[in-house]
Amino acid sequence: MNKEKLGNLVTHFVFVIVFITANSAWSASKEIAGQGHVWKDGSEIYSKVCAYCHEERVGPRILKRKLPSDYIQSTVRSGRRAMPAFRSSEIDDESLTKLAEFISKN
Ligand code: HEC
Question: Would the pTM count as exceeding 0.85?
Fold first, then answer.
């Protein structure tokens, strides 16, 4: 097998692992989010839903980066590759605004 093929295989393998990890974390967070839970504030959502991946190196770090609030909100609604999308039944619009502000400012 040549070097390039091996490289592709390794990349693919890493992606599959990330995807599997992401998916199991995903079901756990969906479980919490899917209970029609009323969120207290942005910090609660971050720690109960986002931290599963964003504090465990499944996803990139999103705190302390001053990411724009709009960008955070659209990422949460549409998802991004291995990151699942969250619907308004899981995180309502008002909570999402608070969450995005929390992440932008922390
Ligand atoms: C199942 C794991 C998972 C969960 C849960 C998750 N994310 Fe992500 N997120 C990811 C991954 C993986 C990426 C990187 C996607 C890519 O570009 O390949 C990502 C990317 C992002 C980005 C883009 C970061 C950048 O560097 O541009 C933002 C913003 C983001 N997530 C916000 C959130 C928020 C807010 C939550 C909580 C509602 C959340 N994510 C929950 C896995 C997750």
Answer: no
Residues forming a β-bridge with 83: 80
Domain of 39, in residue numbers: 3-105
CATH number at residue 96: 1.10.760.10
pLDDT in tens, 55-64: 999 999 999 9
| Bridge partners, 80 (sequence order) | 83
Beta-carbon count within 10 A of 1 CB: 7
Cα(53) to ligand 1 centroid in Å equals 7
The one catalytic residue among 22, 33, 83, 100: 83
**Nearest CA to 91 among 52, 54, 47, 36?**
36
Widest Cα–Cα separation across the chain? 54
Based on the structure, what is the number of domains in the chain? 1
